[in-house]
């Protein structure tokens, strides 16, 4: 360090000055972050609403609008609680209940796979799934999102309740590629077995737990049809 | 360099980051986002633009405030300034597109620790006037975006057979999957570095042969 550079060095600052500067910067930072958060909040909420709307209309074919409910042990609520599951009831233009969508999740190959599935009470089957978030291997595991043959598993996947109403009559499970025989089986993608298994596991776990709780309240979902 | 004599703005102020000191191809800085999010052209472009915004905004603020910041707390101050702008761009990307936000994942937040930005704040913005700092940050951002796009385009074409999501080769194309996976990032980066160095050496050689003065130190 030469003399000229030494002369440039600022004198040792006092602790007070340091505190003032750090506080000032922190306040400016807080102001900027809160301002951005406030300005973008409506757009972000709208984007999330559109994303859910698109997902619901994909898993409940024909649904043009949906309403959000929270299903707990004591029945349907409009506000989320600690032990409630969020469900989306999908209706057509004439306000007929077409199906109910719910979230499911299971451990995949790389990370958790989150998906939304649509249950149709008329055929007592799952009518469609949409993968919401995943980190599966591109080219292999990510086929669960777009492989046409795999998606056709969910055109009408049997999800009837057992006679005692405590669970599914037949557990949803994936089977080896090309060996699907029953409507409750999922034909795995060859080369994406772990991801296919995860989808089956997620659906089975969620349907086993949710459907016995949901079915007694289907009438309430229909009753809300006429409300605005 | 004192701030008073530092008013001259030349083309080099901007082009330094674009070519001679390209953050990725020459300085090899910011390798984490470079390798991680360049699996498609759109991800690369979004990451490049987000980083440019943070470079620009933090460069301007650091340059404006540099004379009031005590030397002992400067790094802490720069980090707070950078983190602020990163949080802002994080919200802005969520407002633009949730799909893009999900694709970029944690790497937006990780711009905070991108060494290009702190490096520029410490080595350039704090020592130069705002106009010059902004122009230099713009050049660095453009250089970073360009480099990410170079990687992203190659990886998307080879790994998914498309450019910006537009299919190029039709359904018969068998994608070279490894290109969209992490090893592909290293392979493509290596190939680009080889190309850049070959160009640099060739130019150097030409200058020696013709007796011209070499501009490469």
Plain-language structure description:
The complex is a heterodimer of chains A (228) and B (217). Chain A has 228 residues and is an alpha+beta fold. Chain A has one domain. Chain A has helices at residues 3-8, 15-59, 148-151, 193-214, 218-223, and strands at residues 65-72, 75-77, 85-91, 97-107, 112-120, 125-133, 157-158, 173-175, 185-187. In chain A, the strands form two sheets. A seven-stranded antiparallel β-sheet of chain A has the order 2-1-3-4-5-6-7. The longest helix of chain A has 45 residues, at 15-59. Chain A is globular, with a radius of gyration of 26 Å. The model of chain A has no long low-confidence stretch (mean pLDDT 86). Chain B has eight helices and two strands; from the N terminus they run αααααααββα. In chain B, helix 3 (41-65) packs parallel to helix 6 (115-123). Chain B is flat, with a radius of gyration of 19 Å. Chain B has a two-stranded antiparallel ribbon with strand order 1-2. Chain B has helices at 11-20, 31-36, 41-65, 74-96, 98-104, 115-123, 130-160, 182-209; strands at residues 162-163, 166-167. The model of chain B has no long low-confidence stretch (mean pLDDT 88). Chain B has one domain. With 217 residues, chain B is mostly helical.
